[in-house]
Specification:
By secondary structure, the protein is α+β, with helices and mostly antiparallel strands. It has helices at about 10-45, 50-70, 145-150, and strands at about 1-5, 80-90, 90-100, 100-110, 115, 120-125, 135, 140, 155-160. Helices cover about 40% and strands about 30% of the residues.
Length: about 160
């Protein structure tokens, strides 16, 4: 059994927020590229201003993507992130303590798409980065990092810190 428990540090919260913004900025950049290709194709196929709407769409999406990708980091995130993550065999149980309320979710370890590894934490991603389970290294209570990495063998990716 592997267990992480405690409040996530401000540093990790800010880094997770930045990672999420960059992820969505990348997707919007890809959509902007598709809209730009559509604008170019329409410009060659039709006469007139038919290319303008997809070009404007590409410009807006590209601008938002650039802003998300380059946005400055927040100084702090005031919300309290108190988590318990347990990994036992093929089950990951994520519990978030929200004052009076407790939210618990269970997921199969085998369904994880990938795991980002940094010097300060692991992000276990199931569908996209906005729903990642954060396992901060300093919050490890049971188990070892080697055991965690063996559990997610083949799905581990190193994430450069900027």
């Amino acid at each position: 059994m592997i267990e992480f428990y405690g409040e996530v540090s401000d540093y990790t919260k800010v880094r997770a927020d930045k990672l999420k913004k960059r992820y969505f900025g990348g997707w919007l950049g890809a959509l902007a590229a598709v809209a730009l290709v559509v604008a170019v194709i329409v410009a060659f196929v039709r006469d007139g201003w038919g290319w303008a709407p997809p070009a404007v769409c590409a410009a807006v999406l590209g601008g938002v993507a650039a802003w998300l990708f380059m946005a400055p980091r927040k100084k702090t995130i005031k919300a309290k992130w108190l988590f318990r993550v347990t990994i036992e065999e093929d089950t990951l149980t994520f519990t978030q303590y929200l004052g009076e309320k407790t939210v618990t979710k269970q997921k199969r370890v085998s369904r994880a798409k990938y795991v980002y590894k940094t010097s300060y934490c692991y992000y276990i991603v199931f569908n996209d980065i906005s729903n990642a389970v954060i396992c901060e290294r300093r919050l490890l209570r049971r188990g070892t990092f080697d055991r965690l990495e063996q559990t997610f063998a083949g799905k581990l990716r190193a994430l450069r810190e900027r």
